[in-house]
Amino acid sequence: MTALVAAGVTKRFGGLTALAAVSLDVQPGEVHGLIGPNGSGKTTLLNMLCGYYPVDEGAVRIGEEDLSRASVQRRAAVGIARTFQKPRLLPTQTVLENAMLGGWRDTRTGFLAAAFSMPRVRAEQRELRDRAQAVLEGLGLGYALKHRAQLLDHAESRFLEIGRALVLRPRFVLLDEPAGGLTGAEIERLGIVIRTLRDCGIGVLLVEHHTEFVFGICDRVTTLNLGRMIRHGTPHEVRHDPEVIRVYLGS
Amino acid sequence: MSGTSLRPMAGSVGVLVALATLPWWAGDQYQIHLAALIAAWWILVAGLNLVVGFGGQLSIGHVGLLAIGAYAFAILAGRHEWSPWIALAASGGLGGMCGLLLGLPSLRLPGFYFAMATMAFALIVAELVLALGDLTGGGVGLSVPGFPEPFESPAGHYLLMLGIATMITWCAWNVARFPWGRALVAIRDNPVAAESVGVPVFRMKLAVFVASGVTAGLAGALFASLQSYITPDTFVFELGLFFFVCIIIGGRGSIAGPLAGTAILTALPELVAPLAKLGTLFYGLLLLAVVLLVPEGIGRLFQVILERVRPRETASPVLEPDAARLAAAIRRQERP
C-alpha cells in the first residue's frame, strides 16, 4: 500500500514560518482529517501536497516516489486531485464539460489529431464523456449535466468539483473545506460521498472547520496550530486532548 | 447522431452551399471580392479565436503575422517565381515559426503585458517592412501574383479561399469541442483549476499561438494575392485591433460568433457606403453596444434571448448522491 506522505515539511513566507516540520500521511482507503484554527497552516499544507508551493525543507512522497520538486501537473498525473475552498469551475461550460476537464491527463492526442478529428480523438471523447456522466450521476448531479456551471447553487458547485477530481482517476483526493456553506442535510450527503471514496480505496485528506463532521467521518485526525502539529490520532484521542481543546475546540 | 445536433449541421451545409454558389447569384464582382476578403480575414480570425476567445490570451498584434505571410508570398511567388501553392504553404509555415518565436518569450507574461508584447511585435514588423526596402519594396510595395487556373478569375480565387476557410473552420471547431477546447477555456477562466487537473498551461498556449501564426500566414498570402498589390499601408496597426474586435463582438468561446463578427465588421463599411467616412464610427458604436449590452458577444445574444423566453424549470431537483452508483462509477474507471 502506497501512502501520500508529507515528511517534516517546512514553509516560510518571508520571515513567517507557515509550517514547521509537519509530518502527515494519508493511506489509501482512509479519511484523514486536518483541523486547526484559522492561519494554522492547513491550506498551506494542502497546497504543498498538490505542488502549488515548493517545500523549503522536508519532502512530499507517494510511496517511494519523491514529489517534492514535481509540478502541479505532474502530481495530478500520479493521482493527486483536489478541490478548492471556493469552488473553481468554468462558469460558461456545462456541468458535464466541467467534470470532463478532470480527465485531461487521459487524453493522449495532440493538437493536430484533435484539429482533424481523428477517430482516436472521438473515441477518447466518448469514453471520457461516459465515465464523467457516470460519476456525476453517482454524485446526484445527473439532472444537471447540461446546465452551465454558473447556474449551479453552492452545494452543486462543491459536488461538481468533487466530480471533476474523481474523473481524474485519483489515488488521493484533497478536500479543502468541502462542508463550508453547506446545510446540515447537504453535509450528510457529502459524508455519503466521502465514505464512498474511502470504500473505493481512495485516500482522502479532509481540511475542515466543521469538527463534528470531521470527528464523525475520519479514521485519523491531525491538528495544527501556528504551523506546528499539536496532536495526531484517532478522532476520540484528538477530541479529548487538552491541548486541542485549549487552542481550537474550546470546552 | 442525435436529432438536436443534426439541425445546426443542416444549417451549416445550407450556408456553405449558398456561399459556394455565390459567384452565380452575386449582384456584381465587388460582392465576390468582399466575400473573398471576409474569407481571408476569417482564416486569420479563426486561428486567433483559439488564442483570444478560447485561451483568453489578448493578442492585438496578429497584423504583424499577417504582413509576414503576405510579404513572404509576394516575394516567393512573385520575385522568385515559386509555385503559388508552395509559396502559400511557406507563408503559413513562416507565420507559424514567427508565432513560435513571438510566443516563446511573451506567453508567460500576464495578460496586459502579453498584449503589449504582441503590439510591439506588430510595430516592429511594420518598421522592418519599410526598412528592408530591397526585399519588400519599401514604401512603394510589391505586386503579387494570383493562383493558376481554375483559381485565376475572381470567382475562382474566391472559391479557393472559401475552401480553405471552410477547412480551417472545421479544424477550429474540432479543437474547440474536444478536450483541447475545454482545457483552453480552463486556462482562460481558471488557470489554477486547469493546473490542478494536469493541463500544461504554457505548452497549450504556445501550441494554439503557433497554430494562429499559421492561419495568419495563410491569410496574409491569400489576402495579398487577392489584392494583387501590397504596400506597408495595407498592414496598419488598426487592422490588428480589428481582428481582436471581431472576436470580442462575436463572443468569447464560440466559433459562430466571431465568424459573424468578422463578416459583419468587414461588410459594414461597404454596406453603409454613403457614410463611408463614418465607417469607423460604426465600429465604435457597435463595439460599445456589444460591450455594454451583451458583453458575451452577439454569438450568445440568441442564446440569451432563448433563456429569457423559455420558462425555467420550477421544481428544483434535490442533490442526492447514490453511494452504490458512485462506487461503481469510480471502480469502473480505476487504472489497471
Outline the structure in words:
The complex is a heterodimer of chains A (251) and B (336). Chain A is α/β, with parallel strands linked by helices and 251 residues long. Chain A has one domain (4-90, 158-249): Rossmann fold, CATH 3.40.50.300. Chain A is 39% helix and 24% strand. Chain A has helices at residues 42-50, 72-77, 95-101, 111-115, 119-139, 154-167, 184-199, 211-217, 235-239, 242-249, and strands spanning 4-13, 16-26, 31-35, 57-62, 65-66, 80-82, 172-176, 203-207, 220-225, 228-233. In chain A, the strands form 2 sheets. In chain A, strands 6-7-8-3-9-10 form a 6-stranded mixed β-sheet, with helices on both faces. In chain A, strands 2-1-4-5 form a 4-stranded antiparallel β-sheet, covered by helices on one side. In chain A, strand 1 and strand 2 form a beta hairpin. The radius of gyration of chain A is 19 Å and the shape is globular. The mean pLDDT of chain A is 93. Chain B has 336 residues and is mostly helical. The mean pLDDT of chain B is 88. Chain B is 74% helix and 1% strand. The radius of gyration of chain B is 22 Å and the shape is globular. Chain B has a two-stranded antiparallel sheet. Chain B is built from 16 helices and 2 strands. The longest helix of chain B has 27 residues, at 201-227. Chain B has a domain at 36-236.
